[in-house]
Design goal:
The chain is mostly helical. Among the domains are: 118 residues; 195 residues, Alpha Horseshoe (Leucine-rich Repeat Variant), CATH 1.25.10. 67% of the residues lie in helices and 1% in strands.
Length: 1108
Amino acid sequence: MDEQEFVSLLRALLQPDTNKVKQATSQLNKTYYSSPQSVVALVHIITSNDQPELRQLAAVEARKLVPKHWVSVSQDQKPQLRQQLLQSTIDDEAPLPRHSKARVIAAIAKVDLEDGQWQELPGMLQQAATSETVRHREVGIYIIFTLLEAMPDIFQENMSQMLQLFNQTIQDQQSVEVRINTMLALAELAMVLDTDEDTKSLKSFQNTIPHMVKILQHCIEAEDDEHAMQAFDVFNKLLSYESAFLNAHFGDLIGFFMHVAAKTEIDDDIRSQALSFLMQSARYRKLKVQSLKVGEQMTKMCIQIATELEELPSEEDEVSPARSALGLLDIMSESLPPSQVAVPLLKAIGPYVQNSDPSHRRAGILALGMCVEGAPDFIATQLKEILPLVLHLLEDQDSGVRSAALNGVARLADDLAEDMSKEHARLIPALIKNFDLALQSMRASQPDSKEHELNTHILKASCMAVDSLVEGFDQEDAAQYVNELVPRFATLFEHPDHKVQMAAVSAVGSIAAGAEEAFKPYFEKSMQSLGKFISIKESEDELELRSIALDSLGKIASAVGAEAFQQFVQPLMQSSEEGLHLDNQRLKETSYILWSTLARVYEENFEPFLPGVVKALLECLEQEETDTEVQLGAEASDLIGQEVTIAGKKIKVAGAGGQVEGVDNGDDDEDALVQELMDGADEDDDDWDDLGAVTAVAMEKEISIEVLGDVITHTKGKYLPYMQKTVEIVLPLLDHSYEGVRKSTVGTMWRAYACLWGLAEDGGMQKWQPGLPIKVKPTADLEKLGDLVMKGTLALWEEEMDRATVTEINRNLAATLKLCGPAILAPGANPGNTTPLKQITALVLMVLQKQHPCQKLDEELDDADALESESSEYDWLAIETAMEVITALTAALGPQSSELWKIFESPVVKYTSSQERFERSASIGTIGECLEGMQEGCTSFTPRLMKVLLKRLGDEDPEVKSNAAFAAGLLCLHSTDAKEVLGNYNTILQTLEPLLQKQSATPSEHEARLLDNAAGCVSRMIKKAPQNVPLEEVLPRLVDILPLKEDFRENEPVFDMIVSLYQSQNPVIQGLTERLMPVFEKIMGPPEEQLTEGTKEKVQQLVEYLRR
């Protein structure tokens, strides 16, 4: 072996010349690395060369070659090589080569120990770790760490002995390196510690946590950022392991990290790391965080940190404490109940939004915006208090505050579009005023000035706020702003900032979708302006703008209708098909969504495009996702320091397995510039596995499946030729690794079933009837598809860990049962020991009791604690939609469902006494819906339900009270327990009496609905037992509030009761005829949905009778 040439080739790898690196790599692989002697030569360089960079490079290479060649090295040479390597590692003063050598020792030990050789090494290392010489301790512990990395179970038999050692070394007074290396080793040891069986070792491990905190605290105080980052990494790892490791000290850890995050004297990167730990804690240890009751304290801390946010919004991916604090608020609002985040936040922001310092006012409104998505239900109840603050900030003298307020409006409208839209008369003028002021100020300022940049942002934010807000507008409300908004936003279509262009284009599409007919005067001009964007493709910015334009044009198509838009369909479809091949993910997804929109507009007339659309969507679903695996070879050297997109994610390339040049990552420090440049990195492929969790292809598939669902629903029978192949390709995706794909698959498969059901009914199949066995037999195709989709859904539902997917399963099953009846509950061809109905019942029960896999992400609380704890609104959705499944089962089974209610009653009733209004409202609403389905089957449950409903009729929340009135009326109507029902008539009437009065000239939605449900309740009571109701007092009040304004469903019992009283010639109702005639006129007119056809016919006959 030519050692001189070998060394020179290695030196060539350190040169910045890419061609030389490639040549040297090729020659090394071809001439030297195929021989075991290469390992001997590399060890010689490692132990004797004067150049630290070359020693490190040789160590990196040796580590890769040891698994392949060490067994073939002569047994005579091995003892000397081991000894030289150990001594050299201990003596090396340069940390990078020293750590790389340690990994070579670990690689050799892995081979040797498995072959029964080098048995003395673990003892030698433990001896070194307790040596009186600091360097020996540092190296000894570091090699132990690398051994644990390579062979996690190496010390499993000596667990208590190792923990005793680590409890000693983690308190090393002379060396922070020893203490940090011990932390790294402990993080590896935790991987194999059995927390259930070995409680003594667990306790010993837990004893190290306070010392870890002291180490991190010391590193922060000493401004030792390198070691501090390693310590943070250990804490993050432990957080991802079993909760038992951190549980005993979790409260103290949260307190410590909050202290670090809040301290402005500490380096921003360190504070951001502390906030990152808090984020992960709130997400993955939420029940523990909730039980500590630190939500309020963390919320206040986040608002204060948010005051540090820069006035000009910076790049979205830039990490800072202020941005991280807002991110933490977002996660907390989703993970914790409103009482711990949204409630204290609303109490706390008052002083901020009124502060004389603009940064405080900005922080207040931005913090509020971050909490909307996680707690929309609660925030909606507080809009009366919130909106005046928002409107005040939209008028703020400081443009940065106004910009933040616009962001707040957009966030509020994103999740509360309907609620926010009611305030359009105040909001839209304020948004227009901000837009005009920004445009005027821009024209008067220098293009590169801070003022110009801020006003550019306000223009964009104004468009985005309108875009979000108009989504919730009624057509009439949107129509009145078309002339104000469209011409203004159209002036920005040619704006030099492409983000402003995109915001304006998107907003015009939303305005069109909301205004519909009123947009037509701007239709042609908008098509001319936007049409030119559908072919641009010279840059990424242009492709992004093109995708927004496609989306906006789809909305315009929905607004103006099929006929007016006809001439533009072909060019749009051509543009969207070309967009699939322009290597821009957003454009590709927007193209798919455009097809969904056009299918909705053209329905069966979309048929000419189906061959191409279905082909493209199914091809998307058949894409391989493994081709995104990454290999960095010599060719990657010119990417160092750059960002590249891999598997749909931006990755910063430095050199080695993830290290940025010039930064010592400690435990990863062998990942120096050259590590991957030498080789195809075969052994390090696993490092990239984590990237593949959510690839761009997977997200594209999610959208494709959703679009297929839309296309199936709207093209109906025209889709039949493609149905079989679609099911064959889509159904297996219930097993996909990405939850978004699984979730959209559930939705699309049940939509396909509903589509086939609708076609069968159109073809003459009878309407379904409640109860099992099924009375209306579906077609063979329907039976087959229903069986397949139900089996797939049940298998997924049983094990699904993602809460949003479980929520989607619940929603789809509920919708299908209501639309298609009990057919899907019937046992399939091979029923086995269970039936779909039994499985659904068991799974729903698990969700109600918070025992489903998707709810058991926190291991640290026992089941009783979990059940008693409040839910965040996001978590509650899984339970609320499970209740929807119960009401749908009741509708599908009719009176038979009383058997199911025996199972569900107690879990549902438990939520009626919750502290959270949304839990009480949903559970009482579920009881009402089930009473309607059970009919007389509810009799045996009357005493308990009557007690619950009477209590909730006095609830402080109008929605809960409204649902209770609905349920109480149905219980009175259907139950045959006359003693219990009639005995409570007076109590119910006394409770409802104050409700049967108009609260105000313009009642809120909740007030109007409460009034309607109270009317429905009284009407059902009269229908059941008119003799037990004082009609002379009640009927005149009832007539005063007719016709009902909000809940048209309650018109049915009201007018059914009125007709019934006329039929029995009741004198009280006859005396009210003159007052009722105008009511009958209104109820027979628009809107059509005021009455069902059956009741309308009865009222019509009554009116004709009364006019005789």
